[in-house]
Design a protein that fits this description.
Layout: H1 3-50, E1 78-83, E2 89-92, H2 104-107, E3 113-120, E4 123-131, E5 137-143, H3 145-197, H4 212-260, H5 267-295, E6 306-309, H6 310-324, E7 328-333, E8 337-340, H7 342-359, E9 365-371, E10 374-378, H8 411-421, E11 425-430, E12 436-441
Parallel strand pairs: 7-9
Antiparallel strand pairs: 1-2, 1-5, 3-4, 4-5, 6-8, 9-10, 10-12, 11-12
């Protein structure tokens, strides 16, 4: 069922419930009011005959009101009946009214009242019974045919009113739903057009930005902007990756072809080609791994944020670097607890250390400082020119002296990505003793209390 139809149905049902409820209340209230008025009229007539000066005050067989037509009074629908002390009807002006409910106790209590709705000779009567001061009782009854006819007429009017009201509510609800949902239809059409054309850089027009539909359109525009940026980054990454992969693949293919045509190739030359091929494979493996890391969507990672001892993690990575290289790593760390993704933080710090070992001369000492949510790594290399310090964090960006060291240009880009995912930042500055100092800084809200 369409939303427009559901809204129409909701409006119609709400109005139907309200109209039917009012109609039922009106019908029952009117009927109750009419019956109360009849009871009041019957009580006044009965008490008129029970007064000391009334016709039944002194004698039980007193003359009843005169008949008109077929036993009816001048009021045309009022009937009287007198009951003696024994409970027998001794006089009446119309049909025989039932007396079985009138018992001795009722007759012995002057002023007692009994109200009933009875059926006599096919007529529905409202009967008022009043015990008289000197014994016996007077019964006054009125035919309810007139009330029933009035209630039937009122019922027909109320039913027609309900039908018209519900139909009108359905029509009005349909119009309101159509007008209210028109902006959503326009938004749907615009989104479908974007889906068809794949034009993510064309924003959706917003008629009113202060209502729910305007906010929804604004959210779509933000989403389109994010998708456009993501697609552009993806295209740039693919383009840059294809360029960077071409060099090791070409070199590796050349080495393999030379080995395949080796023939009379001498053993030293063959070994050199094999070593070159293995080095290119290692470089290619490293490059592919970093590409996968860089292309991974942080929102899709299952690892949740948790407490990480930044000083402990840094010391472990520094010890690993010392085992694998000829560099000594000096770590000056204070106990630092942060909230983050352990695997990502480990990769970022490892990249900082790897970058320092590549640019430092053999045997140089790498200085590492951990405090206040920051990891600073200082090398003894040539440093980074000031105009290149921001660019080195871009994908595949490398320093001007790129021929000195191997690398893909993705290590610091991964550091910047990890910093951004944790709400922090990364930068490079000149180290106090020369060289470069690379810093990974996490925001204060990620720093926990350590005791």
């Amino acid at each position: 069922m369409k939303l427009r139809t559901r809204l129409t149905a909701v409006v119609a049902i709400a109005v139907a419930v309200a109209v039917v409820s009012v109609a039922c209340i009106s019908w029952f209230a009117t009927r109750e009011r009419l019956v109360v008025e009849i009871d009041t009229s019957l009580a006044q007539r009965a008490r008129r005959f029970a007064m000391p000066s009334g016709r039944f005050a002194g004698r039980q067989q007193a003359e009843l009101p005169p008949r008109v037509g077929e036993g009816r009074l001048t009021d045309s629908d009022i009937y009287f009946q007198v009951i003696d002390e024994s409970g027998r009807a001794v006089g009446r002006t119309g049909p025989v009214l039932p007396v079985k409910t009138v018992d001795a106790e009722f007759l012995a209590t002057p002023g007692s009242v009994m109200l009933q709705t009875v059926e006599v000779d096919g007529m529905q009567l409202r009967m008022y019974t009043l015990s008289l001061p000197r014994g016996g009782a007077i019964q006054v009854a009125r035919d309810l045919a007139e009330v029933q006819a009035a209630m039937r007429g009122l019922g027909i009017i109320l039913i027609l009113t309900c039908a018209v009201g519900i139909a009108g509510a359905a029509i009005v609800g349909r119009v309101i739903a159509r007008r209210s949902l028109r902006p959503i239809d326009d938004l749907t059409g615009a989104v479908e057009e974007v889906t068809r054309s794949q034009a993510l850089d064309v924003p959706i027009l917003i008629a009113r930005a202060d209502d729910e539909v305007g906010r929804l359109a604004g959210s779509f525009n933000v989403m389109l902007l994010a998708l456009s940026s993501s697609r552009e980054q993806q295209q740039n990454l693919v383009s840059d990756a294809s360029h960077e992969l071409r060099t090791p693949l070409t070199s590796l293919r050349t080495a393999v072809e030379l080995l395949a045509r080796g023939g009379q190739m001498e053993e030293p030359q063959r070994r050199e080609l094999l070593n070159h091929a293995v080095a290119e494979l290692d470089e290619l493996t490293h490059l592919v791994g970093e590409l996968v890391e860089l292309a991974t969507d942080s929102h899709s990672e299952e690892a949740a944020f948790q407490d990480v001892r930044l000083d402990v993690l840094t010391r472990e990575l520094a010890a690993r670097v010392e085992r694998r290289t000829d560099h000594a790593v000096h770590v000056d760390a204070v106990p630092t607890l942060v909230v983050g993704r352990p695997a990502l933080l480990e990769r970022a710090i490892a990249n900082l250390l790897d970058n320092a070992t590549k640019w430092s001369p053999p045997g140089a000492v790498i200085e590492v400082t951990v405090a206040d949510g920051k990891v600073s790594v200082c090398d003894e290399g040539p440093g980074v020119p000031e105009d290149e310090r921001e660019r080195v964090f871009e994908r595949f960006a490398r320093g001007s002296d790129v021929q000195r060291v191997p690398g893909s240009g993705l290590g610091l880009a991964i550091v910047a990505k990890v910093a951004a995912e944790h709400g922090g930042s990364a930068w490079i500055e000149e180290a106090p003793g020369g060289g470069a100092r690379a810093v990974l800084a996490l925001p204060p809200e990620t720093i926990g209390e350590y005791s």
